[in-house]
Amino acid sequence: MRSRIQLGLFACLVAMLISTLVVITGAPQADARARVTLARPVHAPSVVVLKGRAPVGAKVRLVRRTSDGWKRVAIDRANRRGLYRVRVARPTSRWVVRAVSRGNRSRWRVVRAAPAPLLPPDDSPVDEPPVDEPPVDEPPIDPPPADDACGARLQKADGSWWECSFVDEFAGDTVDSTKWIAQQSALSGVTNGKACYAPERGGIAVANGTLRLTGLRHAEEFVCQRPLGSFTTDLTAATITTKGRFNQAYGRFAFRAKMPDLEVPGAHSALWLYPDKHLYGLWPLSGEVDVAEWYSAIPRQIFPSVHYVDGLKNVHSGQDGMVEDASVFHTYELEWTPKTMRFYYDGVLTFQHTWHPLAPLLGTQPFDKPFNVVLTQAWGGLWNAPTSQTPDRFTMTVDWVRVWK
To answer: pLDDT tens digits for 175-189?
Structure first.
């Protein structure tokens, strides 16, 4: 999170241009991506191939019509090109099928029955199948489990269900100390550049069902206490973390948040994950995951990033996290498996990364250990440093945080 993405002025201009183009052309493209299609089935003697298009990363259910309604045939997930493809056994009777994804349905298609088996070449008797016997329907799909603390249960690609492991709706009037701890420079020594983490000076508040983290420029300078050397400043930043309260390896991590209403340099907001213990060495050896990182100098772009050492670079960032207005609520999600990080913004796959660490790390390292959840409102640095136009206060608002395993 620590202002490590060196975009430079050229990258900033390019990002702004891309953002403008997305705003201009986004509506029709979004409509196109929302559709799900089903091509004509490809028949073979014993199998049939069903394929089509769906939103990138979306789960697609292939269903067939029966006398009791539509029943599931297969499940797949659209790849990064928006394509899906499944093979199923050729049925013994005619099927009418369609594809369903995110509430959208394709046109229906007909799957022809498998051809009848050939008679043996001799006259030996054979057992003939019963005549006009109705096909046996598949057992009905189990209904989803009851809602849990995170709300309606979410289904995984393999058909199983996510289980809520952490949730905070920020329903009270203070931060829940059983779930979060505030960053304090006086205890940790950590600062945000020239800004001090001093929660006693404001910057962290819960009200109206939301958490509010604020960067503040104070009217007078104060001494920022630190174990290894204090300093004088007029800036404070705000961070809370689940360190010592909650951590998890793998799963689904989701945040509903809005960034500061700001379009000049100076503010830096982040929803991120950090190692509970630095078992593989200091940053970035033990990893870091930025689910959503925002810079006020380029307010219409949000970055998902994976930090680790692979011998080439220490950060891999997605460049497609464009939003028309980051100062309204959006949902930012990470699906973390032992092999891949998938980032979804408002349900759309924005970035995907499979890591390959530098030796001596192997396989799934360093992302095979528990990470904490961290929420930060900081002051910007380098190309996003404050200017005379930067206000004295700016706030990131978080509606909820939910984690599943």
So the answer is: 999 999 999 999 999
